[in-house]
Amino acid sequence: MAKERILVVDDEEDILELVTYNLTREGYQVTGSLTGEDALKKVRAEAFDLIVLDLMLPGIDGLEVAKSLKTNQRTRNIPIVMLTAKGEEADIVTGLEVGADDYITKPFSPRVLIARVRAALRRKVAEPIDESAVVRIHALEIHPGRRSVLANGEPIDLTFTEFQILLTLARRPGWVFTRSHIVDAVRGSDYPVTDRSVDVQIVGLRKKLGNFGNYIETVRGVGYRFTENP
Prior knowledge:
By secondary structure, the protein is an alpha/beta fold. It has two domains: 5-125, Rossmann fold (3-Layer(aba) Sandwich); 135-226, Arc Repressor Mutant, subunit A. Helices cover 40% and strands 22% of the residues. The protein contains eight helices and twelve strands. It has helices at residues 13-25, 36-45, 62-70, 89-97, 110-125, 160-170, 179-186, 195-209, and strands at 5-9, 29-33, 50-54, 80-85, 102-106, 135-137, 140-143, 148-151, 154-156, 177-178, 216-219, 223-226. Helix 3 links the parallel strand 3 and strand 4 (80-85). Helix 2 (36-45) runs parallel beside helix 3 (62-70). The protein is elongated.
């Protein structure tokens, strides 16, 4: 049975060849593209299940490609895994804000690349979130209806904001949430807040969770994600 179709976009031919080789070896059907313009042309002509997208491209850069894809009804649900050089934290945040699903920094491990691609494809086909369902991760239980948290069977007293942050992260293990994503999920896009205030909430949440606070991982310069294997 044929695996998913993936478009790889990178203007460095050696990187393009490396990514294509490793994805093809895993059984994926891979198409390559050296420019943003060509990538958009290919997406308009063919159906892809995921796009691995370099940010630094000649002409239309990766951020513009991502924005174009996410504002188009036909392509908005295609997962995007960004490739970026280290130190481009602002670009990473911007890419995640416009809808990219994950990112990989260069130089990268092919094993990490494959793992991130698999995770993004799994999230794409995942069932819609049941807003009332209890979230259970090991000995941590989060009850949306009761607005309660149990750790090893013991109740944890959280504020409204702390609870919402924990629920938002725990519902999507592995997803990278920028601070703006977290604010939107907790208070809405019109709520005035600073990056620092989100960080303060995370510090307080981790402290209350004790050892379970290790489930909340800091993604340096970007935001936070929930990991099931701290």
